[in-house]
Amino acid sequence: MAILNWRNIASAMIMVDTSVLERARNLISIGVGKYDALHVACAIAGGAELFVTTDDRLLKRLRPTAGIVAMLPQNALAYMEKWYEN
Questions:
Q1: CA distance 41 to 20
Q2: I need a surface site. Which of 11, 30, 31, 42 has the fewest CB within 10 A?
Q3: Is the full-model pTM beyond 0.90?
Q4: Angle at 50 between CA 78 and CA 13, to 5 degrees
Q5: How many whole angstroms separate alpha carbon 36 and alpha carbon 42?
């Protein structure tokens, strides 16, 4: 089994600009909290393929229209390791 080196690749500095703020505002409009919206908007701006959270409310809000795949940690691990073949 391959060991993920995610700690070395899962960090980036994202400068908040007008496009990030606009995306955060859009997320707020669908019920995402302010800080969560900024966090998700920065993840999207940084090119994240996956947003991992244990916040069920946030997961429910992000699923329909957020523009990023959001998962619980255990599901994210399975997804990243390609445990499921669909």
A1: 6
A2: 11
A3: no
A4: 135
A5: 10
β-pair partners for 48:
none
**Residues, the chain:** 86
Residues 6+ apart with CB under 8 A from 60: none
User: In this structure, what token pair is assigned to residue 77?
Assistant: 């691990």
| Token pair of 34 as six digits | 């302010």
- Is the CA virtual torsion 73, 78, 82, 86 positive or negative? negative
Q: Which of helix, strand or coil describes residue 31?
A: coil
What pLDDT is recorded for position 6? Answer: 58
The chain-wide mean pLDDT, for the chain, equals 84
Task: Match 């900024």 to its residue by tokens.
Answer: 38
